Known about the structure:
With 507 residues, the protein is mainly β. It has 3 helices and 27 strands.
Amino acid sequence: MRLKASLLSVASGLATVAGAQAADLPVKAAPVQYVKICSLYGDGFYYIPGTDTCLKMGGYVRVQGEYNAGAGGNVIGTIGVEDGQARFTRDLTNDLNYRVRGAISWDVRQQTEYGTLRTYIRFGAENTTPANTGGGTTFQPFWDRAFIQFAGFTVGRSRSFFDLFDYFGTYTYTNPRVDGDTNETGQNLWAYTVQFGNGFSGSLSLEDPAVRKAGTIDAAVAGFFAANGVVSPDNAFSLNGGAAAPTAFGFRMPDIVVNGRVDQAWGFAGVSVALHDASGGYYGAPNSVNNGHPADKLGWAAAVGGRLLLPGGDSAGVNFVYGVGATGFVGSNSANSQIYNASTSVGVGWLSDGIFTSGTDIELTRAWGFTTAYEHVWNPRWKTAFYGGYVNIAYNDTATGIINSALAAGSICARPFAGLVGNLAAVTALPGNSCSPNFSFYQVGSRTQFNPVPQLDIGLDVLYTQINTAYKGPGTYAANGSRPAVTLFDDQGVWSVLMRWQRNFYP
């Protein structure tokens, strides 16, 4: 009995010690949350730990050198910031320009009972000449995408739903002036898309009109072809309506865009139409409600285009656009032209949505154009693209009469509208001049790109731009910076070359 009692006592003690030691052991840690690949939306997505939301981070760093181009691939003389460059003078022209840009993006998606909820944002900063000096702290922030997609809606800053085929970015390093595509800048909008099945869809979009507003111009305003009402040839084709910029004509209605398209394994095809407010401000200057204003006018545009995916990775595309009072849908709304041939001749032209003067209606501007491109993939490291486009701008007889009435004194053009002579003081039309503000321009080029490793682009882009001038023939274009007065308006062409290095990471 004593032995049995002793054994029970020992056992009890051992149990007590074991219990105490067990109580002192650390509690088992919770499982570590590892980042998991999300395969629902393609490469580069990962689950945000602890959620069912997927994230892809991306971006790029771009270094680009440009000859006879600037401001990020814009040919000299085709936008306001490049007009001075096209004088081709030692004091006002950079033979070479550059852009250094860095951008980052976030693409966040998750599944809901209404389908995919997506949020996307992309922004960055750049240093670009001639707009920036090149100093170490001189840079320009930018953002071109910030939108939410949910249950068929797209709201925020995205690419316009009017856009179809465009060769910017995919086929060229240049910034085309022969289309009104918003791929580069983005567009503020509210849109709804219906999926009909088998790749067919339709969209209705309400978009900010300022992006494509070329301006509706009162010819009675002194200097109406000049920025801020100051007559100077280098700014002579801004068409900003005197001191009022195109965006200052009031936002009375958004651009109304309807789009239908089909997306298939072979590529896509689509058609778009848009209504655009081409109304003007008040008659005369200064702006006053007592002056009255012309009746409101709506412009419109229509486009058809598509892209074809070919064997071996090749691709081709084409886009056609026609617009009345909506020229910013056809060509870039800043595609105003001024290119010199030394001091012997100059080529000029400008865009507008419409022209009016005191007591008249608005005369809408007509425009049409097309773009096309083809790319051949030689092998996984080399590919070459060929691209081009054309835009034609036409003013009707009444609009031409209004503009001709505003030419400098001594012009030979008929003047059915009294009191306007001198508002376009930079231009004098002499005997033999066409007396026509109509003009056209085209761009053709080729880019070859080398990818020594995936996601690293190294390429060379060569581009030719032709301006078929307005007011062709003898005339006087006033002294312009260090350029003396020129006595001939003639077609002009310019060659541009761009070199780019760009490192992409899940762009």
